[in-house]
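Table 4 source record.
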Amino acid sequence: MPDLTYFICGRLLQGGQAMGLVLNLLLSGVALVVGSLVGVPLGVFRAMTRPSLQAPLSLVLGVIRGTPLLLLVLWTYLLIQVVARVPLAPIWIGCVGLGLYAATHISDIVRAGARAVPREQIRAAEALGLTPLQIAAFVLMPVSLRLMLPALTTFTSSLFKDSSVCYVIGVIELMQLAVLESSRNPRFLLEYYALMAFIFLVVTLVGTRLAARLERRLRIPGIASPLETVRASDRQTLAAALARARQADAR
């Protein structure tokens, strides 16, 4: 049975082919960068323009977002390799497909975060004579980035796990590597899949913890998280119930 290093990077350390977890990290990392470069400007544009002006863009984004990710990656491969005949490696085609998928979701996250910024701040920036580009760079993004960080963390975790769909275009990532090895050694079928699940779990948990720490460091003073808001509401409800109970006892 291959060791843990084989599932993490394949034969990369021996000068051979990179496989396994390192390709999942590469796919999700590049896709996140591509999706951010495309999705952030689109999200800001959708937040600052009228719905009638963004209708065609929303339609295109809706079609891409509504397409199953497996088909999106496969069609990206067919368009680049078969139709356009561009000699691009499957790993980079997978990054393009995942990047398109990430751009649509990041666009929605940025749009929602930008619209959560109080309108008074935007009006104050307009009163100071800032241009729309300056408002987006110095008012919208610094505040909305902190507000949408939890949603971005959740999407990043999902994107990392969804990178396994690139097996359909020949990328030997962690999932596909476990399938290949289990077909060669059926005796270790359960061990392969258990190890694969363990690696995904560890990476996801570590990333979530790091993102939670970053969220606490970038937290806006005076704005509570949803969980803290619920806890504050519970405390207020409990205090009101105790007050009513004391009044009833006094009577």
